[in-house]
């Protein structure tokens, strides 16, 4: 899969995980793992990039005597999910065309 397309899909998956509820890194990985392959070394740069673009915000909560960093989706992040969903329709049409043509051979 094209790395840019894959990156965009993983970004949206992370945002969708946060749309369900605020979460922290390990929990996001656990939530997404049944659906996509993701590691800490992949997730944290994505979260940093999403925070930099205003799609998520962070806050810290004490947990077992340590501060845990939580991520929360913003309105900008929610808009990004909506835009992706609209664009995905055209990607799906192209995929169906490619699949149809290549399977007919």
Automatic annotation (TrEMBL):
Coiled-coil residue spans: none
Lineage: Bacteria, Bacillati, Bacillota, Clostridia, Candidatus Ornithomonoglobus
Protein's UniProt name: PadR family transcriptional regulator
Top-rank taxon, per record: Bacteria
Family annotation (Pfam families): PadR
Record-annotated Transcription regulator PadR N-terminal domain positions: 14-82
Organism of this sequence: Candidatus Ornithomonoglobus merdipullorum
């Amino acid at each position: 899969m094209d790395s840019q397309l894959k990156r965009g899909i993983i970004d949206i998956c992370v945002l969708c995980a946060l749309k369900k509820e605020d979460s922290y890194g390990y929990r996001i990985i656990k939530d997404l793992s049944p659906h996509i392959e993701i590691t800490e070394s992949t997730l944290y740069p994505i979260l940093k990039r999403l925070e930099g673009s205003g799609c998520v915000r962070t806050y810290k909560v004490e947990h077992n005597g340590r501060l845990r960093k939580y991520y929360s989706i913003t309105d900008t992040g929610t808009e990004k999910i909506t835009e992706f969903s609209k664009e995905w329709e055209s990607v799906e049409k192209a995929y169906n065309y490619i699949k149809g043509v290549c399977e007919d051979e």
